[in-house]
Every structure is written in structure tokens, then in C-alpha cells.
Amino acid sequence: EANLRMPAFARFPGKIQAGTTTNASVSTLDVFPTLLNLTGAPVPTGLDGIDISPVLFGHEDKYDGNNRVLFFWRDGFSEGSLPAPFGRMDIAAVKVGHIKAWYYTKSAHYNDDPEVHHDPPLLFDTQADPAEANPLNPNEYTELIARIEKLVKEHKESIDWTYPLALAKDPEYRPCACLLYTSPSPRDRG
Q: Sheet holding 116-125: strands in order across?
């Protein structure tokens, strides 16, 4: 979880107690529905995030983090209909509460080595083993694996596959780091 378990800060005087901390599993996907809820706007159904205001306001007892489901999508799979280096979009891992199931692993995102498919998935307790170095025995988690496989199937069936995920090629949608920018060299500045 090293690239996913990132600290975040929230400040809301009079609502969020200064100096409080939490280890709740939340996602940047939760920002939009939370802001909508806080402003009193209706939260559309079908969003991939949830309202995390109970976590922010110190009411974690009203937040079911043990059953929180997060899907980890990635592209770059060796087989797929998308042009290189994208390949296929697929779910590489799923996290339910603090247990993470890896279906595919690879050395790095666009490296040439093929992804490795794990069946059953590699399971890790991300709280007890944040480095994901010691896989759990899948035989002890058969019910959870069956639940995760059902969640993956339902999630994939809910997606509109008309357009490939996250592959907009319009320059308007490219991150600013990808834009060509040339600043004058020191000697050109005079």
C-alpha cells in the first residue's frame, strides 16, 4: 500500500477537532460525495465514492470501514485491445476493510515483464503487514475470497465499457506535466 496509503489533512474549524487522527481507509473518490453531502446538495447514486463525514467529524462508529470495498484498476496488461503501452484495463487488486487481495502483480506499471495472475489471489492484512510482505493463507479466507470474486463480477458488470477507462487523448485532458513548456534559459532572460 506504499503508493496508496497516503496521509491527508482536513481542516474545518468548529467541526473537526484539532489534532485528531484516524487510520480509516478512505479514498480520494470520497471527496466529491462528502462535499455534496456537507453542502446539502443531493448525492447522485452510482458514484464510486462515499460520504466520509463520520470519519472527519469523529464518529467512526458510524463508518463501516471493515466492509469498505476499494477496487484497484490498472492498465498495461500484456493482452488487450488498447494500443501499447495500455493493453487491457483490469482489476489488479481489491481491498475489503484491511484485507487486500491481489489478482495480478507485476514489477512496475509499464515494464516489459508479463503480469502474474494469482488464483487464488494473494491476500495481505494491510494493517498488520503494511509492506504486504507476508501473504495470508488463502485456505483460511475462503468465504472472503468468494465474496471478493462476487464483488469484482458485480463491479465489472456495472461499468459502461463504451469508452476505455482513463484513456482520453484530447490534449485538454492531459495533465499539465505532459504539456510542452519551455521557459527561457537564463542567458535569454538578459
A: 69-82, 87-96, 99-105, 116-125
Beta bridge partners of residue 190, listed in sequence order: none
pTM of the model: 0.71
Q: What is the pLDDT of residues 56-115, one digit of tens each?
A: 998 888 887 778 888 888 776 666 666 665 667 788 899 998 899 999 888 776 677 778
The string of DSSP letters for 56-97 reads HTT-GGG--GGG-EEEEEEEEEEEEEETTTTEEEEEEEEEET
| CB neighbour list of residue 51: distance below 8 Å, 6 or more residues apart | 30, 33, 34, 36, 37, 43
141: how many CB neighbours lie within 10 A of its CB?
Answer: 17
Q: What is the distance between the alpha carbons of residues 182 and 166, in angstroms, rounded to a whole number?
A: 27
- Cα angle: 163, vertex 3, 37; to 5 degrees: 65
CA distance 172 to 127: 39
The H or E element containing residue 143 is helix 142-157
For residue 104, what is its C-alpha cell? Answer: 495480478
Q: In this predicted structure, what is the pLDDT of residue 154?
A: 93
Q: What is the spatial distance between Cα 87 and Cα 114, in angstroms, rounded to a whole number?
A: 11
